[in-house]
Specification:
Length: about 350
């Protein structure tokens, strides 16, 4: 295990922003994760776990501790011994997420096809309960294997033990910083029907023509990638709108009364989307943060120094070339304050803040 000093972190993030890590190590096995955790404990060093770097904003001063980059690889599949014959995929935490989606859809296994094109690694998906276009990983996860930094042992959690909610899990809430995810098991459905709920996806698929028949899982995944690219939400070399952390803010989940108040303020019917069974049981719905930001007066391409709103999607903040973390946060606060003033809602950042 090689521990490096003063390692620049900006190249490991899709934002391309941030100072160095005091120490840096890449772990390609569970044994190396155990060793790195022991090293951090021995040296009383703070520990930050880095995956694909697609949901991070690193401070300009960097991180004064040990950054552990998870690089475990491997994907295996087996048919579950259940009447439904579902397929269980075991994917190592360091595997590229979109590659895993491609593997599953090409094998005609349904459950995560709408999550194609999302940057990052498999290990980050249960932490944020990653979701898009009508799917969340919570609905497909069977089990999560992780290293417990308190007991220094490996543990496994069934999906019901992970505390999944909208963009939330035990790993980013009450147990934040305690576990290092090393493997995620996904329960997928061979020959299953694609999930086609969101209007953008429905429109894009409709352009194929009815004579094309029902879309395959692989076709749905490819269409999702095209829709994401049109919004600047697909990582493409040379595309300035891709130097971001994706959706910078979470979509607020609100009550029906709050929704009516938002409509009264804007004099427009606010868009609404399902917020998951738990929220729906409480009479709550999801409102697009991008719509709130636009209604508060911000347009695509709006810039503050070298930080800007994407020219293709209001929910993404981008690095125009040499933006600092301070500039990104200043822009984020300007947007947050305006939305709160207009609608009485405080937007919550989805990006993880490191070193602040």
């Amino acid at each position: 295990m090689l521990i490096e000093e003063n390692k620049p972190l900006a190249p490991f993030t899709t934002f391309g922003i941030g100072g160095p890590a005091r120490w840096f190590v890449e772990a390609a096995s569970e044994e190396e994760i155990t060793e790195a955790a022991a090293w951090a404990k021995k040296h009383s060093a703070k520990l930050f776990v880095l995956g694909g770097g697609s949901n991070l904003l690193v401070s300009d001063s960097g991180f004064d501790g040990l950054v552990l980059r998870v690089a475990l690889r491997g994907i295996s599949a087996q048919v579950a011994t259940t009447p439904s014959g579902q397929t269980i995929y075991q994917a190592a935490a360091g595997e590229d997420w979109d590659y895993f989606v491609a593997c599953s859809t090409q094998a005609d296994c349904a459950g995560i096809e709408c999550l194609a094109g999302i940057p990052g690694t498999v290990g980050g998906t249960p932490v944020q309960n990653v979701g898009a276009y009508g799917q969340e990983v919570a609905s497909a996860i069977e089990r999560v294997r992780a290293f417990d930094l308190q007991s220094h042992t490996f543990v496994e959690f069934a999906a019901a033990e992970c505390g999944f909610a909208y963009r939330r899990s035990r790993f980013n809430s009450e147990d934040r910083g305690r576990y290092i995810v090393t493997r995620v098991d996904y329960r997928l459905i061979p020959g299953g029907t694609p999930t086609v709920r969101y209007a953008d996806l429905q429109r894009a698929l409709a352009e194929r023509g009815a004579e094309s028949g029902e879309p395959s899982l692989a076709e749905v995944a490819a269409t999702v990638r095209r829709v994401r690219q049109a919004k600047g939400m697909l990582l493409v070399d040379g595309d300035p709108d891709c130097r971001s952390a994706g959706s910078f803010f979470k979509n607020p989940v609100v009550s029906e009364e709050q929704l009516r108040q938002i409509g009264a303020v804007s004099s427009k019917e606010p868009p609404r989307f399902p917020a998951g069974p738990e929220a729906e049981n409480l009479g709550r719905v999801k409102v697009p943060a991008a719509w709130l930001i636009e209604q508060a007066g911000f347009k695509k391409g709006y810039a503050l120094g070298a930080a800007a709103i994407s020219t293709r999607h209001t929910l993404a903040l981008v690095n125009l070339g040499d933006a600092s973390a301070a500039e990104v946060l200043a822009l984020a606060e300007q947007i947050t304050a305006a939305v709160e003033e207009h609608f009485g809602l405080r937007l919550e950042m989805e990006s993880v803040m490191v070193g602040f």
